[in-house]
Design a protein that fits this description.
This protein has a five-stranded mixed beta sheet with strand order 2-1-3-11-6, with helices on both faces. A four-stranded mixed beta sheet has the order 8-9-7-10. A two-stranded antiparallel ribbon has the order 4-5. Helix 9 packs parallel to helix 11, helix 10 packs across helix 11 and helix 10 crosses helix 19. It has 20 helices and eleven strands. The chain has two domains: 197 residues, Periplasmic binding protein-like II (D-Maltodextrin-Binding Protein, domain 2, 3-Layer(aba) Sandwich), CATH 3.40.190; 202 residues, Periplasmic binding protein-like II (D-Maltodextrin-Binding Protein, domain 2).
Length: 441
């Protein structure tokens, strides 16, 4: 970025007759109409609300095709495979990163950031939440999905999420309970709550069969020191750390509110919002809903803390990013839009409209913190967001589904934890072998 600054400033000072062009970098793209594909999700509702400001500043029009997430994914699968696509900018979840990059369907952003006519020298990329840039945007580096000498940037964060502990301040104060800072403290409080508050569960958590049970297990695996694979792609999910993570999930569900075994994210959040649980550990995206008195019975009673520490701090990385399809018609104008949306100004506008910031400076902004008291904690939590809490590889869907089904059996049928994870490790090795991950060993 410093090199780009030097180029820009030198050009302005030495080529006087061209100064007017630099004064309006959007002039060439005025009256361009971009078509973007976003999910029907609160963060993107906030983005849509600020798009008129982008058009006012740049003269670039934006048409939004906003769809429920699964329909959005289906539409993108069709659109990105065409020679000429309808979308200039898309939103995607991190699961899609491996699929889209592997299929060569996203633009590498290097040439746009190298172009002084397009790249804003004041963009300050170092201010972006780095764990989430790595998670949502980088591919081709270490393990194929992390930074490294061979890595490239294909997307930018837009709707960064991580896991935090949300708790009932009034219940904790009533019983003199210390907010858990470690997993040992957390699991103790989880089962202490039902004894102190009959009818109330300790923590509401995802646990439903499939992706939700897998997500919940992985949420505990990383901070407790576990991994799905070692550095040679050998499955190590059945390590002592993996067993500890499965035991943590089982303890949380056993001491949770009624119906906890069938909870997806919305059911777990609803349980906490209705006062049926004293804690909820999940994405920061749920916080605004808990503070809305029209939707939540616990508004004004919720405290926010970092994801508890096991052997280390390692909260989840989730949420969405934005990227330019390889078959887009207006790629340069699309880059200007994604740069504007993720700039300091754009990020704050989106945050003030209720979206999730993608920059540390936005979380630290006094105006943001005044409007959203939880912002300071969330900004700190995102510093511990682990881009490797789950592997983003093309075969992850199969492995993830198996973990989820197996964890469900642990929770509902009492399957032995070690036996369950040994089975997952064995089946995972077969999937990885078929996919060619041991070809060079």
């Amino acid at each position: 970025m410093q090199i780009l600054k030097v180029i820009m400033y030198t050009a302005i000072s030495t080529v006087v007759f061209a100064s007017s062009a630099f004064a309006n970098p959007y002039a060439e793209y005025e009256k361009t109409t971009l078509v973007v594909n976003f999910p029907a999700f609160p963060h993107y509702n906030s983005i849509v609300s600020v798009l008129p400001e982008f058009t006012r500043e740049t003269g670039i029009e934006v048409e939004v095709d906003q769809l429920p997430y699964l329909k959005m994914r289906e539409r993108q699968t069709l659109e990105l495979a065409q020679e000429e696509g309808d979308y200039d900018l898309i939103s995607y979840v991190v699961f899609s990163k491996a699929d889209y990059v592997y299929a060569d369907q996203l633009e590498n952003l290097a040439k746009y950031f190298m172009n002084p006519k397009l790249a804003d020298p004041n963009y300050d990329a170092e201010d972006l939440i780095d764990g989430y840039v790595q998670n949502i945007g980088i591919a081709g580096g270490e393990k194929g999905y992390l930074p490294g000498p061979t890595g490239s940037l294909f997307g930018l964060p837009s709707g960064s999420e991580t896991s935090v502990l949300m708790y009932r301040k009034d219940i904790f104060e009533k019983h003199g309970i210390k907010v858990p800072e470690t997993y040992q403290e957390l699991l103790k409080v989880v089962c202490q709550i039902p004894e102190l508050e009959p009818g109330m569960g300790g923590m509401a958590s995802r646990a439903a069969s499939g992706h939700q049970a897998s997500h919940a297990f992985l949420l505990h695996l990383a901070p407790l020191g576990g991994k799905v694979f070692d550095n040679n792609w050998n499955p190590v999910i059945n390590s002592a750390e993996g067993v500890a993570a499965a035991n943590a999930l089982k303890t949380i569900v056993d001491c949770g509110p009624e119906g906890a075994m069938a909870f997806g994210p919305s059911e777990a959040a609803a349980s906490f919002a209705s006062g049926q649980a004293a804690m909820f550990m999940d994405s920061i995206a749920f916080a605004p809903g808990f503070e809305d008195p029209e939707k939540s019975q616990v508004a004004g009673k919720v405290g926010y803390a970092l994801h508890p520490k096991g052997v280390r701090r390692a909260s989840q990385t989730g949420g969405f990013g934005i990227a330019i399809p390889r078959n887009a018609e207006n790629k340069e104008a699309a880059f200007l839009l994604m740069q504007w949306l993720t700039s300091k100004r754009g990020d704050k506008l989106i945050a003030m409209a209720g979206g999730n910031p993608s920059r540390f400076s936005t979380y630290a902004d006094p105006e943001i913190q005044e409007k959203y008291p939880f912002a300071k904690t969330f900004g700190e939590a995102l510093r511990y967001a682990d881009p490797d809490w789950r592997p983003i590889i093309p075969v992850w869907g199969k492995i993830n589904a198996d973990i989820g089904t197996t964890m469900s059996k642990v929770l509902t049928e009492g399957l032995d934890l070690q036996e369950a994870l040994d089975g997952v490790a064995g089946r995972t090795r077969g999937i990885m072998e078929d996919a060619g991950y041991y070809t060079w060993q």
